[in-house]
Protein backbone atom coordinates (compact mmCIF):
# COMPACT_ATOMS: atom_id res chain seq x y z
CA UNK A 1 0.00 0.00 0.00
CA UNK A 2 1.43 3.36 -0.98
CA UNK A 3 0.51 6.62 0.65
CA UNK A 4 1.14 9.79 -1.32
CA UNK A 5 2.46 12.36 1.13
CA UNK A 6 2.34 15.30 -1.21
CA UNK A 7 5.03 17.59 -2.53
CA UNK A 8 7.82 19.21 -0.61
CA UNK A 9 9.22 22.62 -1.37
CA UNK A 10 12.70 23.94 -0.78
CA UNK A 11 13.98 24.79 2.66
CA UNK A 12 16.50 22.06 3.30
CA UNK A 13 17.31 20.46 6.58
CA UNK A 14 20.88 19.91 5.44
CA UNK A 15 21.49 23.11 3.54
CA UNK A 16 24.14 23.39 0.87
CA UNK A 17 25.10 27.03 0.43
CA UNK A 18 25.90 27.88 -3.15
CA UNK A 19 29.47 28.93 -3.75
CA UNK A 20 31.17 30.24 -6.81
CA UNK A 21 32.66 28.03 -9.54
CA UNK A 22 30.52 25.10 -8.55
CA UNK A 23 31.95 24.74 -5.04
CA UNK A 24 30.07 23.81 -1.91
CA UNK A 25 31.25 26.46 0.52
CA UNK A 26 29.26 25.77 3.63
CA UNK A 27 26.62 23.58 5.14
CA UNK A 28 23.93 24.45 7.62
CA UNK A 29 23.23 21.79 10.21
CA UNK A 30 19.78 23.03 11.04
CA UNK A 31 16.46 22.18 9.50
CA UNK A 32 13.57 24.54 8.92
CA UNK A 33 12.31 23.93 12.42
CA UNK A 34 15.66 24.91 13.89
CA UNK A 35 16.46 21.41 15.06
CA UNK A 36 19.98 20.06 14.87
CA UNK A 37 20.43 17.50 12.09
CA UNK A 38 23.46 15.26 11.82
CA UNK A 39 25.17 14.25 8.60
CA UNK A 40 25.24 10.53 7.88
CA UNK A 41 27.18 8.54 10.41
CA UNK A 42 27.81 11.28 12.96
CA UNK A 43 25.35 10.08 15.57
CA UNK A 44 28.01 7.82 17.01
CA UNK A 45 31.13 9.63 18.31
CA UNK A 46 33.41 6.64 18.05
CA UNK A 47 36.38 7.08 15.73
CA UNK A 48 36.72 4.94 12.63
CA UNK A 49 39.30 2.19 13.00
CA UNK A 50 39.37 1.45 9.31
CA UNK A 51 38.03 -1.42 7.26
CA UNK A 52 39.76 -4.66 8.27
CA UNK A 53 40.44 -7.82 6.41
CA UNK A 54 39.14 -11.33 6.84
CA UNK A 55 41.11 -14.55 6.92
CA UNK A 56 40.67 -15.31 3.24
CA UNK A 57 43.48 -16.15 0.88
CA UNK A 58 45.59 -13.15 -0.02
CA UNK A 59 44.48 -11.17 3.02
CA UNK A 60 41.76 -9.34 1.12
CA UNK A 61 38.23 -8.67 2.33
CA UNK A 62 35.90 -11.63 2.02
CA UNK A 63 34.09 -10.48 -1.09
CA UNK A 64 31.95 -12.80 -3.20
CA UNK A 65 30.53 -11.89 -6.55
CA UNK A 66 26.99 -11.08 -7.10
CA UNK A 67 24.26 -10.75 -4.53
CA UNK A 68 23.18 -7.26 -5.41
CA UNK A 69 19.83 -8.67 -6.37
CA UNK A 70 19.30 -9.92 -2.87
CA UNK A 71 18.24 -6.65 -1.28
CA UNK A 72 15.51 -5.52 -3.55
CA UNK A 73 14.26 -8.42 -5.51
CA UNK A 74 14.03 -10.69 -2.52
CA UNK A 75 12.38 -8.00 -0.53
CA UNK A 76 9.90 -7.33 -3.27
CA UNK A 77 11.14 -3.84 -3.99
CA UNK A 78 14.19 -4.46 -6.16
CA UNK A 79 17.70 -3.26 -5.64
CA UNK A 80 16.96 -0.72 -8.30
CA UNK A 81 14.38 0.98 -6.12
CA UNK A 82 15.18 4.59 -6.88
CA UNK A 83 13.41 7.73 -5.79
CA UNK A 84 14.55 11.07 -4.53
CA UNK A 85 13.06 12.91 -1.67
CA UNK A 86 13.52 16.50 -0.69
CA UNK A 87 12.08 18.28 2.27
CA UNK A 88 11.83 21.56 4.01
CA UNK A 89 9.14 20.72 6.50
CA UNK A 90 8.39 17.45 8.22
CA UNK A 91 6.09 15.28 6.13
CA UNK A 92 2.93 14.08 7.78
CA UNK A 93 3.51 10.80 9.58
CA UNK A 94 0.43 9.08 8.33
CA UNK A 95 1.83 5.62 8.95
CA UNK A 96 4.91 6.18 11.02
CA UNK A 97 5.78 6.11 14.67
CA UNK A 98 3.01 6.27 17.23
CA UNK A 99 2.51 9.24 19.49
CA UNK A 100 4.47 9.23 22.74
CA UNK A 101 2.79 7.50 25.62
CA UNK A 102 1.19 9.73 28.27
CA UNK A 103 3.63 10.51 31.00
CA UNK A 104 6.67 10.04 28.75
CA UNK A 105 7.13 13.44 27.06
CA UNK A 106 10.88 12.86 26.92
CA UNK A 107 10.38 10.51 23.97
CA UNK A 108 9.20 13.36 21.81
CA UNK A 109 12.34 15.38 22.40
CA UNK A 110 14.98 12.69 22.63
CA UNK A 111 17.90 12.43 20.23
CA UNK A 112 16.18 9.88 18.02
CA UNK A 113 13.09 12.06 17.64
CA UNK A 114 15.26 15.06 16.76
CA UNK A 115 17.05 13.08 14.09
CA UNK A 116 13.78 11.76 12.70
CA UNK A 117 12.35 15.27 12.45
CA UNK A 118 14.72 15.94 9.55
CA UNK A 119 13.78 12.87 7.50
CA UNK A 120 11.51 12.97 4.48
CA UNK A 121 9.02 10.84 6.40
CA UNK A 122 9.07 8.92 9.64
CA UNK A 123 11.16 5.72 9.79
CA UNK A 124 9.70 2.52 8.43
CA UNK A 125 10.47 0.76 11.71
CA UNK A 126 8.47 1.84 14.74
CA UNK A 127 10.34 4.33 16.93
CA UNK A 128 9.81 2.18 20.01
CA UNK A 129 11.60 -0.68 18.25
CA UNK A 130 14.46 1.59 17.17
CA UNK A 131 14.84 2.83 20.75
CA UNK A 132 14.85 -0.74 22.01
CA UNK A 133 17.91 -1.67 19.91
CA UNK A 134 19.98 1.51 19.48
CA UNK A 135 23.26 -0.34 18.99
CA UNK A 136 21.97 -2.81 16.41
CA UNK A 137 23.40 -2.36 12.92
CA UNK A 138 19.88 -2.58 11.48
CA UNK A 139 18.90 0.49 13.51
CA UNK A 140 22.04 2.37 12.53
CA UNK A 141 21.63 1.48 8.86
CA UNK A 142 17.98 2.53 8.73
CA UNK A 143 18.82 5.91 10.25
CA UNK A 144 21.79 6.29 7.91
CA UNK A 145 19.78 5.68 4.73
CA UNK A 146 17.01 8.02 5.91
CA UNK A 147 19.56 10.76 6.63
CA UNK A 148 21.28 10.19 3.30
CA UNK A 149 17.96 10.38 1.48
CA UNK A 150 16.99 13.65 3.12
CA UNK A 151 20.38 15.31 2.66
CA UNK A 152 20.73 14.36 -1.00
CA UNK A 153 17.24 15.60 -1.73
CA UNK A 154 17.84 18.87 0.08
CA UNK A 155 20.95 19.44 -2.03
CA UNK A 156 19.14 18.55 -5.26
CA UNK A 157 16.22 20.83 -4.48
CA UNK A 158 18.45 23.80 -3.80
CA UNK A 159 20.36 23.31 -7.04
CA UNK A 160 17.13 22.93 -9.01
CA UNK A 161 15.77 26.15 -7.55
CA UNK A 162 12.11 25.64 -6.78
CA UNK A 163 11.53 22.04 -7.79
CA UNK A 164 9.15 19.93 -5.77
CA UNK A 165 9.43 16.25 -5.00
CA UNK A 166 6.53 13.87 -4.79
CA UNK A 167 6.88 11.64 -1.74
CA UNK A 168 5.32 8.19 -1.56
CA UNK A 169 5.43 6.19 1.62
CA UNK A 170 4.58 2.59 0.83
CA UNK A 171 4.08 -0.58 2.81
CA UNK A 172 4.88 -4.17 1.89
CA UNK A 173 2.24 -6.60 3.06
CA UNK A 174 4.88 -9.25 3.76
CA UNK A 175 6.70 -6.85 6.11
CA UNK A 176 8.31 -3.42 6.03
CA UNK A 177 8.04 -0.70 3.43
CA UNK A 178 9.82 2.32 2.05
CA UNK A 179 9.80 5.95 0.99
CA UNK A 180 10.14 6.91 -2.68
CA UNK A 181 10.67 10.54 -3.69
CA UNK A 182 10.79 11.72 -7.26
CA UNK A 183 11.39 15.01 -9.02
CA UNK A 184 10.32 15.19 -12.66
CA UNK A 185 10.65 18.02 -15.20
CA UNK A 186 12.48 20.35 -12.84
CA UNK A 187 14.54 23.36 -13.85
CA UNK A 188 17.85 21.49 -13.67
CA UNK A 189 16.85 17.84 -13.34
CA UNK A 190 14.76 15.97 -15.86
CA UNK A 191 14.27 13.16 -13.38
CA UNK A 192 15.76 12.57 -9.96
CA UNK A 193 14.84 9.86 -7.53
CA UNK A 194 16.03 8.85 -4.06
CA UNK A 195 14.37 5.82 -2.52
CA UNK A 196 14.82 3.95 0.73
CA UNK A 197 13.42 0.57 1.68
CA UNK A 198 13.38 -1.40 4.92
CA UNK A 199 11.82 -4.83 4.50
CA UNK A 200 11.69 -8.15 6.31
CA UNK A 201 9.96 -11.51 6.05
CA UNK A 202 10.83 -14.90 4.60
CA UNK A 203 12.83 -15.38 1.43
CA UNK A 204 10.99 -17.02 -1.41
CA UNK A 205 12.37 -20.35 -2.63
CA UNK A 206 13.41 -18.66 -5.87
CA UNK A 207 15.30 -16.02 -3.92
CA UNK A 208 17.01 -18.65 -1.80
CA UNK A 209 18.07 -20.54 -4.94
CA UNK A 210 19.46 -17.34 -6.40
CA UNK A 211 21.54 -16.75 -3.30
CA UNK A 212 22.78 -20.33 -3.12
CA UNK A 213 23.85 -20.12 -6.75
CA UNK A 214 26.13 -17.24 -5.78
CA UNK A 215 27.90 -19.03 -2.97
CA UNK A 216 25.60 -18.63 0.02
CA UNK A 217 25.12 -21.78 2.08
CA UNK A 218 21.78 -21.32 3.81
CA UNK A 219 20.07 -23.75 6.18
CA UNK A 220 16.30 -23.52 6.04
CA UNK A 221 13.73 -24.56 8.61
CA UNK A 222 10.47 -25.81 7.14
CA UNK A 223 11.60 -24.23 3.88
CA UNK A 224 11.72 -20.73 5.40
CA UNK A 225 14.56 -18.25 5.67
CA UNK A 226 13.82 -15.10 7.72
CA UNK A 227 15.59 -12.03 6.34
CA UNK A 228 15.94 -8.28 6.85
CA UNK A 229 17.07 -5.93 4.10
CA UNK A 230 17.41 -2.18 3.80
CA UNK A 231 19.03 0.29 1.48
CA UNK A 232 19.05 3.68 -0.21
CA UNK A 233 19.17 3.92 -4.00
CA UNK A 234 19.22 6.86 -6.37
CA UNK A 235 19.57 7.86 -10.00
CA UNK A 236 19.72 11.51 -11.05
CA UNK A 237 19.31 12.61 -14.67
CA UNK A 238 20.01 16.33 -15.34
CA UNK A 239 18.54 18.13 -18.34
CA UNK A 240 21.77 19.70 -19.57
CA UNK A 241 23.87 17.26 -21.63
CA UNK A 242 27.02 18.69 -20.05
CA UNK A 243 25.87 17.73 -16.55
CA UNK A 244 26.46 14.03 -15.77
CA UNK A 245 24.06 11.41 -14.47
CA UNK A 246 24.87 9.76 -11.14
CA UNK A 247 23.74 6.51 -9.54
CA UNK A 248 24.38 5.35 -5.98
CA UNK A 249 23.09 2.49 -3.87
CA UNK A 250 24.06 1.32 -0.38
CA UNK A 251 22.40 -1.65 1.29
CA UNK A 252 22.48 -4.16 4.15
CA UNK A 253 21.14 -7.71 4.12
CA UNK A 254 20.73 -10.21 6.96
CA UNK A 255 19.47 -13.81 6.85
CA UNK A 256 18.72 -16.02 9.86
CA UNK A 257 19.35 -19.72 9.31
CA UNK A 258 17.52 -22.64 10.92
CA UNK A 259 20.18 -23.01 13.63
CA UNK A 260 19.87 -19.34 14.60
CA UNK A 261 23.09 -18.33 12.89
CA UNK A 262 22.84 -15.00 11.04
CA UNK A 263 24.60 -14.28 7.79
CA UNK A 264 25.00 -10.59 6.93
CA UNK A 265 26.66 -8.44 4.29
CA UNK A 266 26.79 -4.93 2.89
CA UNK A 267 26.84 -3.88 -0.75
CA UNK A 268 26.74 -0.71 -2.77
CA UNK A 269 28.53 1.75 -4.96
CA UNK A 270 28.44 5.09 -6.72
CA UNK A 271 29.13 5.75 -10.41
CA UNK A 272 29.05 8.62 -12.89
CA UNK A 273 27.68 8.63 -16.44
CA UNK A 274 28.57 11.78 -18.41
CA UNK A 275 27.32 12.49 -21.91
CA UNK A 276 30.55 14.33 -22.73
CA UNK A 277 33.93 13.78 -21.14
CA UNK A 278 35.22 16.47 -18.81
CA UNK A 279 38.60 15.50 -17.40
CA UNK A 280 38.34 17.77 -14.35
CA UNK A 281 34.93 16.37 -13.47
CA UNK A 282 36.15 12.79 -13.75
CA UNK A 283 39.16 13.46 -11.55
CA UNK A 284 37.05 15.28 -8.95
CA UNK A 285 34.47 12.49 -8.78
CA UNK A 286 36.97 9.65 -8.49
CA UNK A 287 39.25 11.53 -6.11
CA UNK A 288 36.34 12.20 -3.74
CA UNK A 289 35.40 8.52 -3.71
CA UNK A 290 39.04 7.51 -3.25
CA UNK A 291 39.37 9.79 -0.22
CA UNK A 292 36.33 8.13 1.34
CA UNK A 293 37.74 4.65 0.69
CA UNK A 294 41.25 5.55 1.86
CA UNK A 295 39.94 6.27 5.35
CA UNK A 296 39.45 2.52 5.68
CA UNK A 297 42.33 1.06 3.71
CA UNK A 298 44.53 1.93 0.70
CA UNK A 299 43.53 -1.22 -1.20
CA UNK A 300 39.79 -0.52 -1.29
CA UNK A 301 39.48 2.17 -3.97
CA UNK A 302 41.50 0.39 -6.71
CA UNK A 303 39.70 -2.89 -5.99
CA UNK A 304 36.21 -1.37 -5.98
CA UNK A 305 37.00 0.89 -8.94
CA UNK A 306 37.88 -2.13 -11.08
CA UNK A 307 34.81 -3.97 -9.82
CA UNK A 308 32.69 -1.01 -10.91
CA UNK A 309 34.23 -0.93 -14.39
CA UNK A 310 33.59 -4.65 -14.76
CA UNK A 311 30.04 -4.62 -13.42
CA UNK A 312 28.65 -1.71 -15.46
CA UNK A 313 29.64 -3.30 -18.77
CA UNK A 314 27.18 -3.42 -21.67
CA UNK A 315 28.43 -6.60 -23.29
CA UNK A 316 26.51 -6.34 -26.56
CA UNK A 317 27.88 -2.80 -27.06
CA UNK A 318 31.41 -3.50 -25.85
CA UNK A 319 31.38 -0.43 -23.62
CA UNK A 320 30.77 0.63 -20.04
CA UNK A 321 27.67 2.51 -18.97
CA UNK A 322 29.77 5.42 -17.70
CA UNK A 323 33.18 6.38 -16.37
CA UNK A 324 32.75 4.26 -13.25
CA UNK A 325 33.29 4.96 -9.59
CA UNK A 326 33.18 2.25 -6.93
CA UNK A 327 31.14 -0.94 -6.56
CA UNK A 328 31.24 -3.70 -3.95
CA UNK A 329 28.99 -6.55 -2.86
CA UNK A 330 28.84 -9.20 -0.14
CA UNK A 331 31.24 -7.29 2.10
CA UNK A 332 31.07 -9.18 5.40
CA UNK A 333 34.36 -8.84 7.23
CA UNK A 334 35.99 -8.12 9.55
CA UNK A 335 33.00 -6.89 11.60
CA UNK A 336 29.61 -5.27 11.13
CA UNK A 337 30.78 -2.07 12.81
CA UNK A 338 33.85 -1.64 10.66
CA UNK A 339 32.03 -2.33 7.40
CA UNK A 340 29.18 -0.06 8.51
CA UNK A 341 31.65 2.79 9.11
CA UNK A 342 33.01 2.25 5.61
CA UNK A 343 29.49 2.51 4.17
CA UNK A 344 28.99 5.70 6.22
CA UNK A 345 32.03 7.24 4.59
CA UNK A 346 30.71 6.29 1.16
CA UNK A 347 27.32 7.91 1.78
CA UNK A 348 29.05 11.07 2.98
CA UNK A 349 30.93 11.27 -0.33
CA UNK A 350 27.82 11.42 -2.54
CA UNK A 351 27.02 15.12 -2.21
CA UNK A 352 30.58 16.51 -2.47
CA UNK A 353 31.41 14.20 -5.38
CA UNK A 354 28.40 15.20 -7.49
CA UNK A 355 26.68 18.46 -6.57
CA UNK A 356 29.64 20.69 -7.59
CA UNK A 357 29.58 19.09 -11.05
CA UNK A 358 25.89 19.84 -11.58
CA UNK A 359 26.28 23.42 -10.37
CA UNK A 360 29.23 23.84 -12.69
CA UNK A 361 27.37 22.69 -15.81
CA UNK A 362 23.63 23.18 -15.29
CA UNK A 363 23.65 26.53 -17.11
CA UNK A 364 26.10 25.57 -19.87
CA UNK A 365 24.91 26.33 -23.38
CA UNK A 366 24.34 23.33 -25.63
CA UNK A 367 23.33 22.60 -29.20
CA UNK A 368 20.54 20.40 -30.59
CA UNK A 369 23.25 17.95 -31.68
CA UNK A 370 24.53 17.68 -28.10
CA UNK A 371 21.02 17.12 -26.78
CA UNK A 372 20.51 14.38 -29.37
CA UNK A 373 23.72 12.68 -28.24
CA UNK A 374 22.49 12.81 -24.65
CA UNK A 375 19.33 10.97 -25.67
CA UNK A 376 21.34 8.29 -27.48
CA UNK A 377 23.57 7.77 -24.44
CA UNK A 378 20.49 7.47 -22.25
CA UNK A 379 19.38 4.68 -24.52
CA UNK A 380 22.52 2.83 -23.45
CA UNK A 381 21.61 3.53 -19.82
CA UNK A 382 18.22 1.92 -20.34
CA UNK A 383 19.80 -1.08 -22.06
CA UNK A 384 22.09 -1.79 -19.14
CA UNK A 385 19.42 -1.37 -16.49
CA UNK A 386 16.89 -3.65 -18.17
CA UNK A 387 19.25 -6.27 -19.60
CA UNK A 388 22.13 -6.57 -17.17
CA UNK A 389 21.45 -5.02 -13.78
CA UNK A 390 20.97 -7.91 -11.37
CA UNK A 391 18.72 -6.03 -8.97
CA UNK A 392 16.40 -4.77 -11.70
CA UNK A 393 16.06 -8.17 -13.36
CA UNK A 394 15.52 -9.96 -10.08
CA UNK A 395 12.91 -7.44 -8.98
CA UNK A 396 10.97 -7.59 -12.23
CA UNK A 397 10.63 -11.36 -11.92
CA UNK A 398 9.88 -11.45 -8.19
CA UNK A 399 6.20 -11.49 -7.11
CA UNK A 400 5.26 -8.53 -4.95
CA UNK A 401 7.94 -6.22 -6.31
CA UNK A 402 7.12 -2.53 -6.46
CA UNK A 403 7.53 -1.95 -10.19
CA UNK A 404 7.33 1.85 -9.99
CA UNK A 405 10.32 1.90 -7.67
CA UNK A 406 12.26 -0.56 -9.81
CA UNK A 407 11.81 1.52 -12.97
CA UNK A 408 12.39 4.84 -11.25
CA UNK A 409 16.00 4.66 -12.44
CA UNK A 410 15.01 5.14 -16.08
CA UNK A 411 15.19 8.60 -17.66
CA UNK A 412 12.05 10.32 -18.92
CA UNK A 413 13.43 10.37 -22.46
CA UNK A 414 15.87 8.24 -24.47
CA UNK A 415 16.57 7.57 -28.14
CA UNK A 416 17.73 4.80 -30.43
CA UNK A 417 18.90 5.39 -34.01
CA UNK A 418 19.71 2.69 -36.52
CA UNK A 419 23.47 2.24 -37.07
CA UNK A 420 24.43 5.50 -35.35
CA UNK A 421 28.15 6.10 -35.00
CA UNK A 422 29.90 9.30 -33.82
CA UNK A 423 32.19 11.15 -36.20
CA UNK A 424 35.90 10.41 -35.93
CA UNK A 425 37.84 12.72 -33.56
CA UNK A 426 34.60 14.27 -32.31
CA UNK A 427 33.70 14.91 -28.66
CA UNK A 428 31.17 12.13 -28.98
CA UNK A 429 33.88 9.73 -30.13
CA UNK A 430 36.06 10.83 -27.21
CA UNK A 431 33.60 9.66 -24.55
CA UNK A 432 32.97 6.39 -26.41
CA UNK A 433 36.70 5.67 -26.37
CA UNK A 434 36.76 6.14 -22.58
CA UNK A 435 33.75 3.87 -22.18
CA UNK A 436 35.56 1.16 -24.14
CA UNK A 437 38.90 1.66 -22.39
CA UNK A 438 38.48 2.65 -18.71
CA UNK A 439 41.07 5.06 -17.33
CA UNK A 440 42.80 5.61 -14.02
CA UNK A 441 41.64 9.07 -12.97
CA UNK A 442 43.52 9.61 -9.72
CA UNK A 443 47.14 8.54 -10.32
Automatic annotation (TrEMBL):
Residues 91-112 are annotated as: Disordered. The keyword Oxidoreductase applies. Keywords: Heme biosynthesis, Oxidoreductase, Porphyrin biosynthesis. GO terms for cellular component: cytoplasm. Its EC number is 1.3.3.3. One of its GO terms (molecular function) is coproporphyrinogen oxidase activity. It catalyses: coproporphyrinogen III + O2 + 2 H(+) = protoporphyrinogen IX + 2 CO2 + 2 H2O. Homodimer. Belongs to the aerobic coproporphyrinogen-III oxidase family. This is Oxygen-dependent coproporphyrinogen-III oxidase, mitochondrial. It comes from Eschrichtius robustus (California gray whale). The lineage of its organism: Eukaryota, Metazoa, Chordata, Craniata, Vertebrata.
